[in-house]
Each structure stands twice: as C-alpha cells, then as structure tokens.
Amino acid sequence: MLKLRPATVVAIARADTRSDADADAPAGERADAGGEQRLVVELAVDGGAGGRREAIADVALVGRAQVGDEVIVNVQALDLGLGSGGFDIVHVNLTRGLRGDRDSAAASANVMKLNYTSLQHAVVPVEDGPPALPVERPVAVLALHAQLACLAWAFAQGAPGARLGYVQTEGGALPGGHSHTVRALRERGLLAGHVTAGAAFGGEAEAVTTAGALDHGLRVLGWDAAVCGPGPGIVGSGSPLGHGGMAALDSAHVSLALGCPTLLVARMSCGDERVRHRGISHHTLTVLDLLLDPVTVALPAGVRSPVGVDLRAGLSAVFGGAMPSRPAAEEPAAAVEVERPARIARHDWRRASVDLPGYATSGLPAESMGRGLAADPLFFGAALAGGSVLAELASGGAEAP
To answer: Are 390 and 153 in contact, with CB atoms under 8 Å apart?
Structure first.
C-alpha cells in the first residue's frame, strides 16, 4: 500500500538546470527533459510525526515546485531506512500540479508508461517500423548504473569520436532524470543520447521495449555502440534470481536477437563486505550461466580467471598495493566457485588494459556502494575493461561470439 503524507516545500535544496545550448530545444531533445528537483519538505502532523525531510520531485511528472507549495509525498522508502531511499518522493503537487497541462509533444502521445498506476502518463514511442536486421553494432550490458561512467570514459579513450548511446532499463531507478551520471556524461559529450525503455521513463526519447530502444539508437540515431543497463540503485532481495541485475539477462538476449555483438560488463569487487559479490559477483555469474548463447566478457588485463584459485593471484598482479588487505581467513572468499563451470567458460573472455589513475583524474563519478577507487579498484577496473573492449568491437575488432 502507498504510504503518503501531506507536506509543505520549505526549501529548494537543488534544482537541476539545463545548459544554454539546450534552453530552446524541444522537451524531447533536451538532455535533462526528465529533470529532478531536490527539496526540503515539512511533513504535516497528520497521523504521524512531523519534521523536515529531503524529497525529490520528478519535474516531468509533477512539475517544478516552489517554496510554499503543498505537496503529497511518498515516505515509504525513507521510513524503512532503505539504502537507496534516503529521501521522500513527491507524488503530486497540490498547489500547481493538478492542471494536467499538455505540451505539444504530449498532445500526440498515444502510449502509456507506468500504465495502470496513479502515475501513468502518455509518451511518444520511438518504435516506428520493422527493424533492419542484423543491426551489427555492439552493445554493452551493465549490471549496475555505477559502471556507466567508467565504461563511457574508457570507450571514448579507445574509440575517439565514436558515438555511444545509453538505453536505460528496469532493475534500478526508473526515472531518467534521477541520474547525475547521465547528465555529466551528456554534458561532456561522452554519451550521444539517452533513451528510456520499458518501465523506465523520462529520457530524451521513450521506447516501449529495449529492442525498440536499441534499434532506434543504433539504426536511426546512428550510434556506433550502445550501453544498456539500469538506472541508479538496484532492486535486491539477496536471492540468486531476485535482484535488478537479472535485467542484464533480458537485455543481452535482446541484443543477441538483434544481431549485435554483445558484451556483458562483469560486476566484480575486491572490497565488498558480502562474499557473494567478491571476485566476480553472483549477479554476473548467474546471468552468464543462464544466457542461451555466448557473449563477450571483459576482464582487466592480468586477471587469468574470473573464478577459482587463480583469481586472487591475478588481482594482486594487476592492482598490487591498491588491493585492500584482508585477514588470511577471508582470502578463500575471493576464490568464487561455480556449480556449472562449463556454462561460464563457454563465453568469450577478453582482457583489456585499464587506466585507473587516468579515470581518477577525469572528474567523473568514482563511487559504488559507498566505496571509491582506492577501496574497490576491481569494481572500477572491470567496468573500464568493458569500455575498452566495447571500443574494440565498435572499431571493427574481432567479432563477438
């Protein structure tokens, strides 16, 4: 059940703004068309305690708030203390958000997103005809949004001038405007576009399906490569199948079906407290096990194996003193074993050099789950390796399986 509370906006903590170059562009073509406001709201004493709390407002859905506006906020995630829910979410702006204004783009919309919920809204989908198969341009599939900046930066280093687009899927945050990383990458020219697919919404263009988004970006918009993955945060129950990383399985199958060389960007860690995510994460291993066909997977150069007893030695050879020290009793936890090793070994494992110092000076986001480059170099190294291999594929390197 929705947990909604009335509140009053008492401060604008931060309002995302578009660049001068975007100011006069149509709503569907602006890099921040689904922008977000950070607010401070005062909860009304109405069946619960009052007090000031942080809230976010998706401008495309509920309009732009001002101090003094009366709003209804969803308080569920913050009340539960969820790691990815450190704020309330504006459900409706009672002061100025009930007019139902429609801009020129919405007037021609005929497809609903978030359909059959109280936040359903009409969009104009990019799908406009049969695909021209095979597409034959490479697609990288992410497990986590925190891999995106590393991959885009390494791709630009390896394929200067090539156009990389981002397709946002389910698995994490659904609003396209929630990602500060996407805005930073768009402003720096490291992403050529942002399409939200399926349940995700608020990108520069909307697609009903991931297949439609990839076809539109690669064929119509002329992207040289695409990266496909969830928005910030991740849905997770701790079970093998009950997590947002499983969206990578669907995205990889779509990419393969379209005839795209497909690269799975491995989620790896040497700093995660949870055994299931150290070495190569069970999220990635599960997807690699269940995939119907082989894909390409990147590893940092020097890592001989993603699993088994060779892993720790390879990590030390690559990262040396950057590796966080662990008690000897914890060492075996890095040597992840798998039940069906042949299902993992059948994929095309490629090694790529990574430039962690270069990325560290890029000014791009360098944190995942509260850990930075020094605390978890393997996480960022694996994502950088993915960007380098994707650049090879886009530049006509050996074809993926």
So the answer is: no
